[in-house]
Amino acid sequence: MSQAPIPQEDPTQEKGLVAWFAGNKVAANLLMLMVLIGGITSIVLMNQEVFPEIETNLITVRVPYPAASPDEVEEGVVVRVEEAIAGIEGIERIRSTASEGEGTVIAELEEYVDSSKVLKDIESAVNRIETFPQEIEEPIISEASNRVQVLSIVVHGNVPERTLKELAEQMRNELTSMRTISQVELSGLRRYEISIEISKEALQRHSLTFGQVASVVRESSLDLPGGSIETRDEGILVRTKGQRYRGWQFEDLVLITRNDGTLLRLGEVAQVTDGFEDSDIAAFFDGRPAAMVKVYRVGDQDALEVADTVKNYLEQQRELLPAGISADIWLDQSRYLQERIELLVRNAYLGLTLVFLCLTLFLNPKLAFWTTMGIPISFMGAFCLLPWFDVTINMISLFAFIVVLGVVVDDAIVVGENIFSYRQKGMDPVAAAIRGVLEMATPVTVAILTTVVAFMPLLFTSGDIGKIVRVIPVVVISVLLVSLVEAMLILPAHLSGPRRRHLPGSLTQFHSRVHQALDRFTQGPYMRALRWAIGWRYLTIAMAMASFAITIGFVAGGHIKFVFFEMVDSDNVVAELTMPQGTPIEQTRAVVKQIEEGATRVRQQLDSESVTSQPSVFKHVSTTVGQQPFKRMAAGPGNRNFGSSLNNAHLAEINIELVSAEYRNMPAQHIGNLWRQEVGE
Q1: pLDDT mean over 455-460
Q2: Which residues, 6+ apart, have CB-to-CB distance to 515 below 8 Å?
Q3: Closest CA relative to residue 621, chosen from 284, 257, 325
Q4: From CA 339, how far away is CA 540, in angstroms rounded?
């Protein structure tokens, strides 16, 4: 007695969101267009920055102590500031440095505290300190800023320092007047200073004291308001303008008015020098004196837009520079962001092409096309979501997009292949789409959520590194969830259309051959291996566990190395020179010269070994005496204030910019080793 066949339910009668979208192409297309348009709009409006902007939670206390040694600064300034702010609520840790002429104390705040309240508490505590040495200047208390340096303009030439400074100041003023740029600062230059030198003999000859001369200078160089005069028609503001800005103006100051009407002027008893402060800062670029114009991105400014504005401005200014002066771009951080964007675009193009070609081998072109479209749809959907999580286009988010690029269409492939298999059996297109997506809904959803859960722990990483790393799971999870929506709601509607009846004969034959080869493999070697694994299931499990144990052993034994971030070849090789505190500037310059000569010999060696038509491996060499700007920039906001004193004669930095890694045949580390050998002890 034979059994009657079990009646099959009509998939088109299924109810629910998935089935409804599968049978309504208009709704699916509208959803797809909304995602694409929203993603494109978000890309246009989103900020582009080199690294994610994070809250630093740092408050800096800087106390200038002119002419004081580091020991005196530590005892008279640093220790007293630390004691005053140690008990303030909200401070997690205190770090300090005592350098020549200045003490710096940095308070690291606990997360989620009100930094403005802690800032006021620190200001009150420092202002209450009554045991500071009398020679200190006014303490500078500020919250660490989040500004990021985009690039620098280097103005260099064998011209007087004043010429370089005036030209750099002109560039700064013109750049800050532009809409896209807000913050520009100068580096490698000394501040203006008017020095008045008067001898003891001159004071005695005219019965003057140094205090009297200082008082006259102080009181005679002021702009003072004088109130207002009310007239019948209007009020007139009265203001005394006596501020002096040049040395010759101070020379005319009257020190004494004699009874006979003669005047004793400052210039008659003192030497007035209109120059620069007595500082050990000096910058050189390719061996010539230089001034740095640093351009920063702040707030909602776009890093690439800031860089393009500066580069266009520099192209116009090069024609107007005086003879003997050149200007170049230095430490362009925006190019790393641009290269990462280009890498993502190249990988996306390559991924789209490979996915489409591979799917075309086994499925029909329509299915291959719409499955491949899952990549741009998922990415555009993620761009729609990122602004809600305060994520911008930056190096880290672009890295996350590259990571997820390889797994984003897995769910679409599974769903699409299942729908295709039902259509090959002759099922109605809409019914095949509904049946195919409903069967795969649970396993595909579980697979996506498993990957989501794997990335979620990164969201809870603490500290500054956590604020940066959180971008990766936000991007990956957003892309995966949007891809799940695309595979469940949009893709089935596109695959529910009528079959294309007239495919090219060559494509039909090609598909037939590929399917025959695949069937021979699955029914032959794969089927035999599968039966063997099932028949010897305990041995199969033992082999899997042994493989896992061997892998763990390789990692535990150190055969497989672990690094948090893979080292990427740099385009800069930097030598940081730190001499003992109190080292004379002449000795520091002598060591710097020795290091520069070593770099010159390395350059000559590498250039002699390269092909004549190739450019030199070295692009530029920047030398800074008295500061270490590259180290401070790379250290992040929390460490940039350390060593910021103007009289750091023991510090220096030599920075070599190399041609891009793709145009040289050796890593930067090898060039650094050659340089180290040439410099010697």
Answers
A1: 90
A2: 362
A3: 284
A4: 46
Closest to 447 measured CA to CA, from 474, 410, 420: 410
Q: For the segment 291-333, what is each residue's pLDDT rounded down to a tens digit?
A: 999 999 887 788 889 999 999 999 999 888 888 899 999 988 8
CA distance 412 to 486: 8
Please tell me the distance from the alpha carbon of residue 61 to that of residue 123, in angstroms, as a whole number: 9
Whether 296 and 184 have beta carbons less than 8 Å apart is answered as yes
pLDDT, tens digit (0-9, with 9 covering 90-100), for 476-514? 999 999 999 998 999 888 887 666 555 566 667 777 788
Q: What does the DSSP 8-state code read for residue 581?
A: T
* CA 373, 375, 381, 387 torsion-angle sign: negative
Beta-bridged to residue 184, according to DSSP, are: 295
At 613 the three-state DSSP class reads coil
Q: Are 654 and 595 in contact (CB under 8 A)?
A: yes
Alpha helices in 486-536 (DSSP H): 491-494, 505-521, 527-535
Integer CA distances (angstroms), 647 to 200, 277, 280, 655, in order: 28, 10, 6, 21
pLDDT band, residue 640 (cuts 50/70/90): very low
Number of helices (H), then strands (E), belonging to the chain: the values are: 26, 18
Q: Which residues pair with 157 in a beta bridge?
A: 325
Angle between helices 471-485 and 395-404 (to 10 degrees): 40
- Mark residue 178 as left, alpha or beta (left: phi above 0; alpha: psi -120 to 50; beta: remaining): beta
Residue type, 653: E
- The secondary structure of residue 647, as a DSSP letter, is T
Task: Between 466 and 132, name the one with better pLDDT.
Answer: 132
Tokens of 419: 């729908």
Interacting residues of 25 by C-beta distance below 8 A, sequence separation 6+: 493, 494, 496, 497
* Residues of the chain by 3-state class (helix, strand, coil), percent to 5: 50, 20, 30
User: CA-CA distances (angstroms) from residue 263 to 139, 195, 252, 253?
Assistant: 40, 22, 10, 10
What does the pLDDT look like over 531-575, one tens digit per residue? 999 999 999 999 999 999 999 998 888 888 777 666 777 888 999
Under a CB-based contact definition with an 8 Å cutoff, are residues 195 and 277 in contact?
no
Range list of β-strands (E), 282-360: 282-285, 288-297, 325-330
Do 573 and 599 meet the contact criterion of CB atoms below 8 Å apart? Answer: no
Expressed in angstroms, the distance from the first to the final Cα of the chain is 99
pLDDT tens digits, 46-73 = 888 888 877 778 899 999 888 788 888 9
The b/e string for 227-242 (b: 16+ C-beta within 10 A; e otherwise) is: eeeeeeeeeeeeeeee
Mean pLDDT of 588-606: 90
pLDDT: which is higher, 510 or 34: 34
Q: How far is CA 344 from CA 322, 396, 402, in A?
A: 42, 12, 6
What average pLDDT does the structure give for the chain? 84
Give the predicted TM-score (pTM) of the model.
0.77
Give the pLDDT mean for 406-425: 84
610 pLDDT tier (thresholds 50, 70, 90): confident
Answer whether 440's CB lies under 8 Å from 422's CB. Answer: no
Cα–Cα distance, 212 to 206 (Å, whole number): 12
- Report the candidate in 493, 446, 456 with the shortest Cα–Cα distance to residue 29: 493
